[in-house]
Amino acid sequence: MTMTLISPAFADGELIPETYTRMGENLMPALKWTGAPEGVKSFALIVEDPDAPRGVFRHCGVFNIPRDWSELPQSSDTAPGGGPSFCRNDFGNSRYDGPEPPKGHGPHRYRFCLAALEVPSLAVPAVAGIEAMWNMAQKHILSQATLTGTYEQA
User: Fold this and answer.
1) CA 51 to CA 104: how far, in whole Å?
2) Across the strands, what pairs with 109?
3) For residues 139 and 137, what is the distance between their CA atoms, to the nearest angstrom?
4) Where is the chain membrane-spanning (predicted)?
């Protein structure tokens, strides 16, 4: 079975509602997944914008998501449900920060990538950024699922 990632807030390839952007309420959209492989011991998630002017911009990194979870709720908290940990994003915050592409830069894609890991936790320093966490996670991935939304600031 292939792992899939969905959100009730937007469909794959569709527009992310303003509520989930920095121009709106900056809430992290709810995410749900199915098809986690056998042997999964935890999950990690990143949200990144590959269309940013200076290269990939990372909006959110969540790790040590318990293996028995199959969703993350809509949230403005730094740690939804008190379980997983957030790492520092490219805005310098340890939380979700939604889309905020430059005005007139055209539509940007926002990739939500969920990884099922073969380890129960990642020992990521509190000051570590998303890239460091994701590089650590890459060594332990059993399966991955991606959901892509778009956003443009006219």
Assistant:
1) 13
2) 150
3) 5
4) none
4-151 maps to CATH 3.30.450.20 = no
pLDDT given for residue 116 in this prediction: 98
Res 128 pLDDT > 90? no
**DSSP, residue by residue, the chain:** ---EEE-SS--TTSBPPGGGSTTTT-PBPPEEEE-PPTT--EEEEEEEETT-TTS-EEEEEEEEEETT--EE--B-SSSGGG-SEE-B-TTS-SS-----PPTTS--EEEEEEEEEESSS-----TT-BHHHHHHHHHTTEEEEEEEEEEE---
Instruction: Kindly give, in sequence order, each residue whose CB lies less than 8 Å from that of residue 22, ignoring residues fewer than 6 positions away.
Output: 97, 98, 99, 100
* pTM, entire model: 0.94
User: How far does the chain reach from its first CA to its final CA, in angstroms?
Assistant: 40
pLDDT band of 1, cuts 50, 70, 90:
low
Domain ranges of the chain: 4-151
Single-letter residue type at 106: G
Residue 34, φ and ψ in degrees, nearest 5: -135, 165
Radius of gyration of the chain, Cα coordinates, nearest whole angstrom: 14
